[in-house]
Design brief:
alpha+beta, 5 strands, binds zinc ion
Length: 104
């Protein structure tokens, strides 16, 4: 489930090229800053969202998790940049198991 707040502020973004990833990072960052999303942590082999959101670039794997502050919907920002196979900023059904906490 999701609410009107996160539906408005966090659209689904398909990531195919680096420009899409940039757009997805900016979308997630501004949603966190506006209080819509809460940053929850990163996935395996990923970089902390702090370093990605600061504009210092990203590694081979982008995997960061968020929840909506009002409805609790989980979001996953993920991309596989090394092979360029892409990724997405998308809703996921439940909390992932491999999540690692890092501060943002
Ligand atoms: Zn919501």
């Amino acid at each position: 489930m999701s609410c009107s707040q996160c539906q408005n502020e966090v659209p689904f973004i398909k990531i195919k090229v680096p420009q899409n990833l940039k757009e997805a990072i900016i979308t997630a960052k501004s949603a966190v800053e506006s209080g819509c999303l809460v940053y929850r942590g990163m996935g395996n082999f990923a970089d902390p969202f702090k370093s990605i959101a600061s504009g210092s670039g990203w590694g081979d794997f982008v995997s960061n998790y968020f929840t909506c502050a009002s409805c609790g919907q989980w979001f996953h920002l993920h991309a596989e940049t090394y092979h360029g196979s892409g990724g997405a900023l998308e809703r996921i059904p439940s909390q992932p198991q491999n999540i690692q906490n890092d501060a943002y």
